[in-house]
């Protein structure tokens, strides 16, 4: 993935995810057990990863994370 596009993609995904979570009045309940965990989303098509960091009421998306993720999901865009 071109490095100039990644911050834009992350920002757009984070905003869309926040709007989606806002639609469910129970989202905080669903996020609570995952708060403080890190999920690596490995996109094989781009040879790149995003890191999802759930909090008590939102999910932050990071370009990198210094520690190993608690869970990893991987796949290609064509899958």
What is the strand and helix layout of this fold?
Layout: H1 6-22, H2 27-31, E1 39-43, E2 48-54, E3 59-62, E4 71-75
CA radius of gyration? 13 Å
Report the end-to-end length measured between terminal Cα atoms. 17 Å
Percentage of residues in DSSP E strands? 25-35%
How many helices does DSSP assign? 2
**Which word captures the global form?**
globular
Task: Give a quick account of the main beta sheet: strands, pairing sense, barrel closure.
Answer: 4 strands, mixed
Indicate the mean pLDDT. Answer: 91
From the helix content, strand content and strand pairing, which structural class follows? alpha+beta
Number of strands: 4
Q: Unreliable segments (pLDDT under 50, ≥5 consecutive)?
A: none
Order of helices and strands: HHEEEE
Q: What percentage of residues falls in helices of 4 or more residues? A: 25-40%
Order of strands across the main sheet: 3-2-1-4
Structure description:
The chain is of the alpha+beta class and 79 residues long. The chain has 2 helices and 4 strands; from the N terminus they run ααββββ. It has a 4-stranded mixed β-sheet with strand order 3-2-1-4, with helices on one face. Strand 2 and strand 3 form a beta hairpin. The radius of gyration is 13 Å and the shape is globular. The model has no long low-confidence stretch (mean pLDDT 91).
In brief, what are we looking at here?
With 79 residues, the chain is of the alpha+beta class. Helix content is 28%, strand content 27%.
